């Protein structure tokens, strides 16, 4: 597979692992690696499991790319938004497994999944853009609006990060377990997902996510990153 993204196909499941050896910063190149892994998963009709390395799911978009200027920043953020759209419409269940920190774009990937697991631990999950001087991209606002309950969505404006248990209460993840129980819980859920009717899943997911997909596409037509401060994005 690609340099930073591993892919293993086992019994109808595509295990897609992001590990750049550092913090899994999602550059345009790494986002395209993820997209290619999803190509394989889709071609195989496999359930997709996205996971990071131990201690870090992803620290979000690559800050070095933002430092390179407007055009590289737009290309990276657009690639991230397109990946979110793909996950929302993916023709098989998508599961994320977070055994560490998940910051902005990492959290976006989790919000776009069908089922989200996290490990207990001294980790933080959330959308902290404004805390570090970044304006949340319009597409990400629409994703958060779609997935988070109103009281959690409102907190995006102040950029807090949350421990896994709080992230579950706020809607960022579905299941939080001790690390030594996480793998078994994921395996049990994958067994359940393998048994559901795939056509019904795909059709229902399309109905559930149609409004958000439309809103995200509309947002991308008007703004990819804030034009008044082009170095800023999620």
Q: Which percent range describes the beta-strand content? A: 15-25%
How are helices and strands ordered from N to C? EEEHEEEHHEEHEEHHEHEHH
What are the segments in which pLDDT stays under 50 over at least 5 consecutive residues?
Answer: 228-234
Query: What is the molecular shape?
Result: globular
Mean pLDDT: 95
Q: What would CATH call the class? A: Alpha Beta
Give the topology, please.
Layout: E1 5-10, E2 13-18, E3 25-26, H1 28-43, E4 47-51, E5 55-58, E6 60-61, H2 63-67, H3 70-88, E7 94-98, E8 100-102, H4 104-111, E9 115-119, E10 125-126, H5 138-147, H6 150-155, E11 161-162, H7 164-170, E12 175-177, H8 179-195, H9 198-222
Parallel strand pairs: 2-4, 3-6, 4-7, 5-8, 7-9, 9-12
Antiparallel strand pairs: 1-2, 10-11
Helix pairs in contact: 1-3, 3-9, 5-9
């Amino acid at each position: 597979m690609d340099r930073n993204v591993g892919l293993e196909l086992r019994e109808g499941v595509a295990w897609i692992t992001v590990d750049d050896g550092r913090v899994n910063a999602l550059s345009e190149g790494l986002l395209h690696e993820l997209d290619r892994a999803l190509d394989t998963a889709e071609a195989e009709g496999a359930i997709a499991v996205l996971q990071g390395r131990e201690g870090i799911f992803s620290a979000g978009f690559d800050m070095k790319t933002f430092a390179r200027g407007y055009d590289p920043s737009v290309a990276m953020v657009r690639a991230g938004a397109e990946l979110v759209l793909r996950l929302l419409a993916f023709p098989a269940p998508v599961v994320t497994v977070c055994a560490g920190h998940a910051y902005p774009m990492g959290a976006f990937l989790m919000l776009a999944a069908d089922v989200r697991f996290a490990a207990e631990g001294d980790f933080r999950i959330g959308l902290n853009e404004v805390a570090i001087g970044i304006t949340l991209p319009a597409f990400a606002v629409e994703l958060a609006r779609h997935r988070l309950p109103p009281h959690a969505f409102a907190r995006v404006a102040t950029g807090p990060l949350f421990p896994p248990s709080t992230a579950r209460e706020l809607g960022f993840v579905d299941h939080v377990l001790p690390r030594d129980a996480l793998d078994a819980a994921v395996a049990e859920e994958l067994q359940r997902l393998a048994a559901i009717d795939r056509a019904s899943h795909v059709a229902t997911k399309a109905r559930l996510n149609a409004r958000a997909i439309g809103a995200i596409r509309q947002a991308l037509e008007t703004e990819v990153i804030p034009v008044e401060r082009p170095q800023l994005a999620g």
